[in-house]
């Protein structure tokens, strides 16, 4: 019987730029790589520590560069993770073989460890302090820690539109919107800038040089599906959820216009029925929405200016909107499922089918083989695409065809870790 190669995973590991020794590969019992938005990605390698042979070995000492590649034979594997060893943990059980767990993370750990006090502005004679644009501040934070930042064209355009400073009579306005870093890590500052510009932070491990390309991506620029999964076929399990608990209907802030000496209240919400933003403006500091929605309003304490109001409100509202519909799922190992990529889910009806954004993906290889688990979310960007074009089809008669499970013979041929 011919066996499909899709169930013969291949593992490659590089340590300090060289292939891992054969003895170490043979000691691997499981490998798990977690990659997602925001915080540092993580790799865990569990070794069978027979005779305590790896306990004091320097092959995976701290700060050692390490890479994990996964794929299916005979195709060339893809780089899933590239980072540095940050720790290890030994286990000496009363029964069974001792183990050693090696933990690695990407270079965002360096941003999380740095918290200098500074501001990002340029002094211009006869004008005063003018703020550096976010498209300059964000790459600067990455470059100073050895990362290579990239911003997609839509993200740059949106940032320029949001951070444009309007002409005002108040000469101190420029100083008030200069970005400052005080008591905040460089990673937290980068995440705040990303939120206010509708960006997501992700390490592109596949790109070269490995683990050094930091992508400030605009999800609105990437709406085409990268992977299609169908329930009962390629999708092993899927658990979506829709919740309004803790959801904010709108974000309200007060905006001071110095030239007019007027304070306005601006409230921005999202109409799920019309798939559109709802903006309300009222003079003075009040709440331009009806009382019955009071508990669904987030008030911002800070007084904003016309220059930064849009990006601050967007940074508060957009993450809340994108948490309304989320899901978790799993499938047979797939290297194309990465943070930032788009999944097209079929066979789960119209409400839960269609396009989903991957926010976190875990690639695990152990004694059961290679499998991928993922966290996904529905985004407001997908609202402009008709459900049928997304593959979201209403279930006819309330019945689904019975699941078609993978061939058990093929499933049993998946290679063991370390081979």
Write the layout of secondary structure elements.
Blueprint: E1 9-15, E2 18-19, H1 22-27, E3 28-36, E4 42-48, E5 65-72, E6 78-91, E7 99-105, H2 108-113, E8 118-124, E9 128-131, H3 134-143, E10 148-151, H4 153-163, H5 173-176, E11 179-181, H6 186-196, E12 200-203, E13 213-217, E14 227-230, E15 235-242, E16 250-257, E17 262-271, E18 276-283, E19 297-299, H7 309-321, E20 325-332, E21 342-346, H8 349-352, E22 354-366, E23 369-377, H9 387-390, H10 408-411
Parallel strand pairs: 10-13, 14-21, 16-19
Antiparallel strand pairs: 1-2, 1-5, 3-4, 3-22, 4-7, 5-6, 6-7, 8-9, 8-11, 12-13, 15-20, 16-17, 17-18, 20-23, 21-22, 22-23
Helix pairs in contact: 3-6, 6-7
Describe the model.
The protein has 419 residues and is an alpha+beta fold. Among the domains are: 5-106, Phage tail proteins - horseshoe like beta roll fold (Roll), CATH 2.30.300; 111-204, no CATH class; 250-321, no CATH class. It contains 10 helices and 23 strands. Strands 1, 2, 3, 4, 5, 6, 7, 14, 15, 20, 21, 22 and 23 form a 13-stranded mixed beta sheet that branches. Strands 18-17-16-19 form a 4-stranded mixed beta sheet, with helices on one face. The protein is globular, with a radius of gyration of 25 Å. The two termini are 22 Å apart.
